[in-house]
Amino acid sequence: MTDWFTEKQTEHVGVTMAIEETLHSEKTAFQQLDMVKTRQFGNMLLLDGMVMTTEKDEFVYHEMVTHVPLFTHPHPKHVLVVGGGDGGAIREVLKHPSVEKATLVEIDGKVIEYAKKYLPTIAGSLSDNRVEVKVDDGFAHIAHAKEAYDVIMVDSTEPVGPAVKLFERGFYEGIARALKPDGLFVAQTDNPWFQPELLAKVYTDIQEIFPITRVYTANIPTYPSGLWTFTIGSKQYDPTKVASTRFHTLETKYYTPALHMAAFALPKFVQDLLK
After folding, report:
1. How far, CA to CA in Å, does 32 sit from each of 28, 39, 46, 48, 71?
2. Does 80 share its domain with 168?
3. Do 21 and 64 belong to one domain?
4. What is the pLDDT of residues 12-22, one digit of tens each?
């Protein structure tokens, strides 16, 4: 017998995967957490019935949410990851030798606990001596930080449950205050097929706060529609104008300097959304 899990992506669309085994299931203080073993994608983390990450395709998201902003900033030393309790973004951040400290603020400590247990290839860098892990509210952490970070990454779930306020204009205003005078940030901003209004609103909010705002995409097969967007807000540095000399060799599976530039070439319908 094979069990099947379906993520209902809209009222009319779902993606179904074969499940070999449920490794852990728990209602935490914040959300329903399930860790399952799938036949196609290996171990998979689900939060409130939504796919967060899998062993097979996680590298796409984690490389693109980190390396694009970190190569855009010429000297990123202090980096904050809001959310991202699976540890994948932290793992990629630490590949940059200029980073002196990486702070992870995850509201649900259970995500960190079970990622370490069942996703060790993703969470293995959380014990690095350059990393500070805080189980705390990322919104509150941002509100109390002043010019503390060079780069901030918002590695959140979709805008449901505790992540709703991470998609609000007030949060982006707080990020601007938490960044240094030449700082920048990136947020995952869902997909343009099923969440076009969300992408357009977030882009508008960020554009009204930051002088440089750019959207880029990546292909992530286990995320709704497979076409995923990220939005950068920058005080000074343009991610589409990074000098070729700034790139250095990293061990990656998806990200390349050429792809860094190409990712900002948006389909026409996405360009139209952002007008």
Report:
1. 6, 22, 8, 5, 35
2. yes
3. no
4. 999 999 999 99
* Element holding 141 (H helix, E strand): helix 138-144
Beta bridge partners of 232: 186, 214
190 assigned ligand-binding residue: no
| Structure token pair of residue 198 | 């969300």
CB 230 within 8 A of CB 68: yes
For the question of residue 155 being annotated catalytic, the response is yes
pLDDT tier at 159, thresholds 50, 70, 90? low
Quick one: tokens of 169? 């204009």
The single residue of 34, 57, 150, 155 carrying the catalytic annotation is 155
Buried b (16+ CB within 10 A) or exposed e, 69-97: bbbbbeebebbbbbbbbbbbbbbbbbbbe
Q: How far apart are CA 83 and CA 139, in angstroms?
A: 10
Structure tokens at 213: 């705002």
Sheet containing strand 101-106, edge to edge, reads 131-135, 101-106, 78-83, 149-155, 179-188, 227-234, 212-219
Q: Specify the number of domains making up the chain.
A: 2
**Is 156 marked as binding a ligand?**
yes
Specify the pLDDT at position 161.
65
- The predicted model scores a pTM of 0.96
Is 128 among the annotated ligand-binding positions?
no
